[in-house]
Amino acid sequence: MTRYAMVIDLDRCLACQACVIACKMENNVPASTPDSFKAHKMTFRTRVIPLSTNGSYPNPQMDIRPVLCNQCENPPCVAACPHGATYKREDGIVLIDWEKCQGDRYCMAVCPYGARVFIETEEPKEYHNPDAVPPGNSRFVPPKGKVDKCTFCAHLVDKGEDPACVTACPADARIFGDLDDPSSNVSEALASRKGSALRQDFGTRPKVFYIR
Amino acid sequence: MEQIDTVVEEPASWSRRLERRVMNPLIKTGQGYWIIVALLALVVAWGVYAYSTQLRDGLIVTGMRDRIQWGIYIISFVFFIGISHAGTLISAILRVAKAGWRTPVTRIAEFITVVALSIGGLMPIIDLGRPDRIHHMFIFGRWQSPILWDLLSITTYLTGSIIYLYLPLIPDLARCRDRLGNEAHPWKRAFYRLASVGWQGTEKQHKYLRIAMGCMMVLIIPVAVSVHTVVSWIFGMTLREPWNSTVFGAYFVAGAIYSGIATIIIIMVILRRVYHLEEYITRQHFINLGYMLGAFVLIMLYFNVLEYVTTGYKLAGEGRFHFQQLMTGPFAPAFWFYILGGMVVPGLIILNPGTRTIPGLIVASIFVDIGMWLERFIIVVTGLRVPLMPYAASWYTPTWVEWSVMAAAFAGFGLIIAVFVKLFPVISIWEVEEHREHQEAVRVAEQSLQRLREEAAVTQPASRTAFTWEGRHESS
After folding, report:
1. Distance of residue A154 Cα from the nearest chain B Cα, in angstroms
2. Is A81 helix (H, G, I), strand (E, B) or coil?
């Protein structure tokens, strides 16, 4: 069995936001504009957020954390969806079927990570990266009234490639691979260093790990 | 308890008067009625326009965003489903308990249930991003999701309440069919003929009606309780701290009945005034409803103590954030209005005999309904606002679209009731008659008992045996 997971090396992450941009380019995530910011819209599938700030000059510290959908092994969103629009693939990736989603946003209420965003309105059909859009595939046009989230770039993973954020990371801080394969780079990274995940107390068994 | 005047009057003439009083609105319509209906329809039309902008531009026209993704629509949903509970409580529980004073109240209460459920059930559909896909709930429905439990319980409850409303209506519809004659519009006559399903008032028909009503009034109570429990589970089944409470189901049910009784009082006052039903819906009816409201003030206060003392004492985890945002934070005005205006003030109004009057109860009921709407606002919005991750807490500002749709929902509620009072008798004529006959019988029995006692006193002055009207002998 394959169980895709991501390990994020916090010692390496420099919060350059390259992953955020790459994700937007790859997946045609709606643009973050001053307007969308003012309207409190989260136009991200992955973000880099400050967890805490400590200390003062000359030794200030900021604990930053790239966050994305945790692709939980026990995903509350999949359980909550009234009609199976959100589902978990064999390889553990949690996806949304946009042909089914009716936009009741219950999955957003149950996701403790706030990893899901809602596409309230039709975006101009202008692709950030036209190459990423398979011809005739409407899945990559952001549709109106549906929930969006990180897919681990399932379309790239299916082709044997890494997710866009992993490829774009200049510091190799994001590591992607199969958790069930002991020789994969995620298993090795987790074996050599102490890993943790966000809000494990909820029992969702997230598959995005942080090492430092 | 004294409900119906005790002036000795021939049952036949009393019945005729009741009939005329209740049936008159069905055939005569004043100008004021059309003005009110036009106003309500205007508000509904405005709401439909607001909703059309939402359909065109998407949910961006609302204030709901990624962090607080539910707002006025879901609040109204919970509120209207809540109101729908009083109908069942008053009518079914009082019927089961054989409380005689309920008879003029039940029809209005049951109708509020059906209307509120229909309006409430519409709200989540309005809330959808893609309402054109509502049928996916039926095609791809999964029982693991609390939303589907809701769908099941609300449709069951709606079906049950429609049946429960309809059954006691049959004899009255038959009476409309027989008595209104040419006074009523031809299509109305056809409607009464069709809807009264051949009711002739035979012994057999009465027997079956009684059996059917008996089954429904017992069945509808657990269904009603389950509905609001399941509505609370929509929230309670998530990982959000403020919703993570085992008393949530009972808290919702109590709140539902509480706001429902208040709404019944308001609607009853209006109908009584407009249709001059003072003889049948007396001050005592309002006082009795007021006592029920007062009991629920205490129950609601108790639930709030349960909820907030446990959170406030521990102040653990997200509970601290939640407690602070309620008590002193941005929700403090709403929260304290809910506690003081929604419970303490109505409680005091009911407690004080000087204000325990119909105007006092109207004020109390309006306070209760506003307070309970705010309670739902607090539950939905604060629950989503508490960040479970180190995000900054978001904020929710409803837009004109949401306010308009909510106004339309309330106007639609009024509009359907306005249509109802023109189609159906607002008071259950045959039940009120029966209750009156029963009271008459009791009165006659008491009179003859009194006579018997007097005779006994004359013939047997030393006797220590007393008679009761039930014919049993009791030693005094």
Report:
1. 23
2. coil
Bigger pLDDT: B391 or A116? A116
Q: Is B240 exposed, middle or buried (0-12, 13-18, 19+ CB in 10 A)?
A: buried
pTM: 0.90
Mutate to test the interface with A, among B53, B54, B55, B60 (most CBs of A within 10 A): B60
Q: Which amino acid is at B1?
A: M
Domain A4-211 has CATH 3.30.70.20: yes
CB contact under 8 A, A112 and B145: no
Inter-CA distances, B253 with B184, B284, B398, Å: 41, 26, 26
Q: Name residues 371-390 of chain B within 8 A of A (Cβ).
A: 384, 387-390
Chain B contact for A81, CB < 8 A? yes
For B266, counting Cβ atoms within 10 Å of its Cβ (0-12 exposed, 13-18 middle, 19+ buried), the class is middle
Poorest-pLDDT segment among A26-35, B171-180, B376-385: A26-35
Query: Phi/psi of residue A86, each to 5°?
Result: -100, 130
The strand pairing partners of B104, in sequence order, are none
Whole-number Å distance between alpha carbons of B358 and B293 = 13
Q: What is the mean pLDDT of residues A13-27?
A: 89
Nearest CB to A103 within list B57, B67, B128: B128
Q: Does A88 touch chain B (CB under 8 A)?
A: no
**Mean pLDDT in residue range B21-38:** 87
- Could you tell me if A42 lies within 8 Å of chain B, comparing CB atoms? yes
Q: What is the pLDDT of residues B93-142, one digit of tens each?
A: 888 888 878 888 888 899 999 999 999 999 999 999 889 889 999 999 99
A83 and B139 in contact by Cβ < 8 A?
yes
Cβ separation A103–B130 shorter than 8 A = yes
- pLDDT, residue B185, reads 82
Q: Which of B58, B59, B142 sits opposite A82 (nearest CB)?
A: B142
Q: For residues B224 and B251, what is the distance between their CA atoms, to the nearest angstrom?
A: 14
For the segment B335-371, what is each residue's pLDDT rounded down to a tens digit?
999 999 999 999 999 999 999 999 999 999 999 999 9
Provide the mean pLDDT of chain A: 86
Please state, in angstroms and as integers, the Cα–Cα distance from residue B219 to each residue in B92, B206, B223, following that order.
9, 20, 7
- Element (DSSP H or E) covering residue A86: strand A86-88
Cross-chain Cβ contact B388/A113 below 8 Å: yes
Peptide bond between residue A58 and the one before it cis (omega within 30 degrees of 0): yes
One-letter amino acid identity for A125? K
Helix or strand or coil: residue A117?
Answer: strand
Domain range list for chain A: 4-211
- Tens digits of per-residue pLDDT, A42-63? 888 999 988 888 888 888 888 8
On chain A, the residues whose CB falls within 8 A of the CB of B142 are 81-84
How far apart (Å, rounded) are the C-alpha atoms in residues B121 and B259? 17
What are the backbone angles phi and psi of residue B209, rounded to the nearest 5°? Answer: -60, -40
Write the residue in A50, A118, A144 that is nearest to B69 by C-beta: A118
Question: What is the end-to-end Cα distance of chain B in Å, rounded?
Answer: 24
A181 to chain B nearest CA, in Å?
30
pLDDT at position B432: 87
Give the distance from CA B359 to its chain's centroid.
20
Q: Do A83 and B58 touch (CB under 8 A)?
A: no
